Amino acid sequence: MADQRIIERQVAEVFPRVWRSVNGTLRRAITGEGTHHRTLVAQVAATLIVALITLRWGEGAAILLALLAASVSGLVDGRLSVALGLLCLACGPILLIGAQHTWLQQSTLVNYYISSAGINSLRSAAATLTTWAYYLLAIGLIGLIRSYVAQGRKTESVRDRTG
Q: Is the pTM of this model over 0.85?
């Protein structure tokens, strides 16, 4: 019981910061702030090509690889992937708690949505979400490293012009 309260406190402290980051990232991704129109079109085209090519490996692989392509090309900020990964990690314990309650697993509505998603139980849903979380965190890290390298190059080019 004490562990659950600690987790709830930590989630309550982290969630507002993550929400502000996700909100700003989505706004920049949708409006295309800071990018030229041609660059934005090229980034979207590259992401769609990657998604269509990898679709034969499955929907999950296509989504993750398209998100990786979008992060590497700079279309989507890496913080968005990190926020989604943290959200998946936060949902895992909720699903495991739901798996312990037998009345929830006997619900027709819950079984309908779980089976339509291709998941056999809430425990396997938690395992799937945890796996996706680690992929999303890795994609976010790669996107953040790309933006860090790009920012370093920008800083060097400004120093070369002024110095």
A: no
DSSP string covering the chain: -HHHHHHHHHHHHHHHHHHHHHHHHHHHHHHTTTS-HHHHHHHHHHHHHHHHHHGGG-HHHHHHHHHHHHHHHTSS-HHHHHHHHHHHHHHHHHHHHHHH-HHHHT-HHHHHHHHHTT-SSHHHHHHHHHHHHHHHHHHHHHHHHHHHHHHHHHHHHHHHHH-
Per residue in 111-144, pLDDT (tens digit) is 677 667 666 777 888 888 999 999 999 999 999 9
Task: Decide: 72 and 138 in contact? Cβ < 8 Å.
Answer: no
pLDDT band at 24; cut points 50, 70, 90: low
